[in-house]
Amino acid sequence: MITLALSKGRIFDDILPLLRTVGIEVLDDPDKSRKLILDTNQPDVRVVLVRATDVPTYVQYGGADIGVVGKDTLLESGNQGLYQPLDLQIAKCRISVAVREGFDYTAAVKQGSRLTVATKYVAIAREFFASKGVHVDLIKLYGSMELAPLTGLADAIVDLVSTGNTLKANHLVEVERIMDISSHLVVNQTALKLKQAPIRRIIDAFSAAVNK
Ligand code: PRT
Ligand code: MG
């Protein structure tokens, strides 16, 4: 049995067409059922639904053999010990710095002001601002980052952006792109050894589908 860890939402929606290309059809719709373990048309492949940030943990400790996870989550969790064979090129976005409209970020940075930055991505933000030599006080948030500059909690946020509509709707502007993000395949090292043939087959099929 091969267990594939996925998160509901964007990653699940974007991986379905890729799974189909590699011959795997998920038999339950997570929007209609409350099941957390989903069968597929392949009797030896099942899907488990976990929180996006829990995917590396599931794969690292063997709760799943393979997972699909955003590069943002991988970088932030610092999860080592995971084999990362493939960039699936799905759920693409970027991680950026954004501020309230009218806040002069460039001037603040130039003046060497200390910036308060709210983010879910504390490790990524710390590394980014350190590399620029910008002094920051980081505030860890778990969601609704957009609210922080509007309420005076922070001068800036570091968050994922795809269309930019969320920023726009909240009168925020993107002032710096930190990096491009997409979702990657991650594999449990032990599973790779013990279930080498079926796992290799899945990685190779994904690889062919991505490069098509
Ligand atoms: O939602 P939950 O708290 O359960 O977990 P999660 O937020 O970690 O999961 P989920 O499903 O929201 O995101 C999973 C992965 O999708 C992320 O780790 C990214 O790798 C990837 N991804 C791609 C995105 C986006 N695009 C994205 N736009 N994740 C989140 N967003 C957010 C963004 O932060 C903004 O607030 O969606 C909002 C809308 O973005 P715009 O720019 O299109 O308006
Ligand atoms: Mg989310």
TrEMBL record:
Main location as per UniProt: cytoplasm
Name used for this protein in its record:
ATP phosphoribosyltransferase
Q: What does this protein do?
A: Catalyzes the condensation of ATP and 5-phosphoribose 1-diphosphate to form N'-(5'-phosphoribosyl)-ATP (PR-ATP). Has a crucial role in the pathway because the rate of histidine biosynthesis seems to be controlled primarily by regulation of HisG enzymatic activity.
Q: Name one Pfam family in it.
A: HisG
Q: Which reaction does it catalyse?
A: 1-(5-phospho-beta-D-ribosyl)-ATP + diphosphate = 5-phospho-alpha-D-ribose 1-diphosphate + ATP
Task: Let me see what the UniProt entry remarks about domains.
Answer: Lacks the C-terminal regulatory region which is replaced by HisZ.
User: How does this chain assemble?
Assistant: Heteromultimer composed of HisG and HisZ subunits.
Alphabetic keyword roster: Amino-acid biosynthesis, ATP-binding, Cytoplasm, Glycosyltransferase, Histidine biosynthesis, Nucleotide-binding, Transferase
Ranges where the ATP phosphoribosyltransferase catalytic domain occurs = 51-206
Tell me where it resides: Cytoplasm
Q: Which family does it belong to?
A: Belongs to the ATP phosphoribosyltransferase family. Short subfamily.
Q: Which organism is it from?
A: Polaromonas aquatica
Report whether Ribonucleoprotein shows up as a keyword of the record: no
HAMAP family listed in its UniProt record: HisG_Short
